[in-house]
Structure formats: structure tokens, C-alpha cells
Amino acid sequence: MHETVVAENVLRTILEHAEKLKARPVRAVVSCGQFNALNEEAMKFAFETAAAGTVCQGMLLQIRQIPLRASCRACRTLFELNLMTPLCPQCRSEDFDIEPDAPLLLEEIEFEDKQ
Amino acid sequence: MKVSLNQKILSRNEEAAAKNRQFFAEHKVFCLNVISSPGAGKTALLERTIRDLKERYAIGVIEGDIETDKDARRIQAAGARAFQIETKGACHLSAEQVHNALKMIDAQTLDLVFIENVGNLVCPSAFDLGESGRVVILSVPEGDDKPAKYPGTFAGASVIVLNKIDLLPYVPFDLSRVLADIHTVNPQSPVLQLSAATGEGIDAWYDWLRRHLEKKQP
Asked: Does the pLDDT at position B215 exceed 90?
């Protein structure tokens, strides 16, 4: 459940921005790579729990999973790597380099427009 | 109104990790973050390593557990400095906890610091502790499906230790499958097959340590 720590960090950042802008956050987007093993359900639950009683309560948290990419050493194709079938889709080679996994990012926060 | 950030979520942890990394560089300390499931043999491997190498290197261990100081006592009995962090529920160590623990073991006077992370094959891998390298241990009785199920952890390893190989005749375990699955996500790091209990294969581990201690990087 490292999602708890991730959720607390996301919440802290959103609260700082909300305070600065004096606005109510309605939506935030988090993105992560495949090696981060961020479970969507656990992440949403952890965020809801952390956000209860704050200005973030009830806001929408979207999680964007970024696929792992690899480049084939045989034919140089850049492809989305499925670890269940670790093959180059072009030439079926098993010889490839995995690109660096996408980091855990808080991409954007959307705030309610002021009346 | 949208605010674009693209900000690293664990940046506070990464700032503390950078401080630790600087500390290790400044004091020429080689630091290994040891990650595995509970019961894979992290403490057993460290005990044996300390007993065999303590005349040669000054070794310290930062122990992470949810409860108790049992592991720190085992490490002290083996002859190394140890400091126990009780996480009280947290499933991994953070860079800040390690930063404070480094002072408790006078790490600047050591050659080698092991951080024995909380037993967990998922969460610790997301937290950079500023270590010089990562040791991931898999033990034979856990089963041969673990590298495929926890690819991120194995991908981040500087070295993989396959422990309890003395049990290979007694449990179903497809060694070639394990090696192939590790190779898929991490083709560059060595896989060392050993038994911390019997000592079989342990010299390859000591060779790996010696080589990296000499250049102080993974």
C-alpha cells in the first residue's frame, strides 16, 4: 500500500495550490509507468480517505497508466512492451532494450471557475 | 481553470535521497538497499556476510521492520553496527528515515552500509533511498513466478540473489523460467545462486561485493 504515501503527497500539493489560488479543486491527473505498480483502486481509495474533510473531498482523481516501451535490437522498431509476450511485434525478436519507465507525476489540477 | 504541473509526486523523498547519495559519495561509503519478500533470507544473508567479511570491512546495517528490533539484535550478534527503524505499519522505508538512521550508526566511518528494507516485493522499489545499488533477493520456496509478477522490483535491481538453492531438490521450481523472466526486464544485472544457510555459492556474492566496494558504485 505505497499508494497511501503517494496519495498523501498528491493531496498536499493540491491543497497548496488551492490555498494559493483560493479555488476549489475538482479534478487532478496522475500518471505512472508500469514498474511503479500503482494500483488504481487502492490509489483512489487512499486519496479519498486522505482528502476527507478537506477542500479536496469529492474531487475526481484520474490515473493515466503509461505503457512500457522498448526498442528492438534486431530491427530497431520502437514498440509498447507487453510483459506477457515479450517480443518485438515487427520481427518477433526477444532481444530488445526497455526504455526508462515513466515517472510518477502529478500532471495537472483543474479548479472550479470562479463566479 | 487548469494548472499544468508535471511534478514528481515523490519529490520530497527524492530530495532526501539526493542528500543521502551526497553523504555516501562524500564519505566513500558503499550503500546497498536490500529488498525481498518476508522470509526470503535478507537477514540471514547479512548475518553470514558480516561474519565472513567483518575483519576486512567496517559494516553497518539499517534495519526496517513494521514491528520489533529482532533483526537489529541478530545483526549486532553477528558483529556489525545496527540501527532498527520500526515503521509502525508503513510497508517501505523512506529516504528521510534512512537519513536519520545514518547518524545513529556513525555511517561516515563505515565502508559498507546495508539497508534491510521492510519485507515486501512491491512498495520499497518505488522509494529511492539514495543507495549506491539495489540487491533483490528471491528465495526458492517463494516460487518461480515472482519475477514475472513483480517486474518493477526486478527491473530496478543491480544484482539479484537467488537464495535457498539448497532447497531446489525438494520444491517445484523452474530455474530456467526464473532466469528468462529476470532477463526480460533486467538483462544487465547478474543473478547469483546461493544458500545463505549452507554457504553454497556465497563466494560469487562476496566477489560482487568486493568489486563494487573497490569502485564504490553498482
From this structure: no
> Could you tell me the CATH number of the domain that includes residue A42?
3.30.2320.50
Of A30, A103, A108, the CB nearest to B4: A108
Q: Please check whether residue B191 is in contact with residue B160, taking contact to mean a CB–CB distance below 8 angstroms.
A: yes
Q: Tell me, what's the pLDDT at B191?
A: 98
Residue-range domains of chain B with CATH: 11-215 (3.40.50.300)
- Quote the domain boundaries for residue A10: 3-66+101-111
- Residue of A4, A6, A9, A113 for testing the chain B interface, max B β-carbons within 10 Å: A9
Q: How confident is the model at residue A46 (pLDDT cuts 50, 70, 90)?
A: very high
ipTM for this prediction: 0.86
State the DSSP string of B130-188.
--SEEEEEEEGGG-TTHHHH-HHHHHT-SEEEEE-GGGTTTS---HHHHHHHHHHH-SS
Best mutation target among A13, A34, A35, A115 (most B Cβ atoms within 10 Å) is A35
Task: Tell me which chain B residue has its CA closest to the CA of residue A105.
Answer: B8
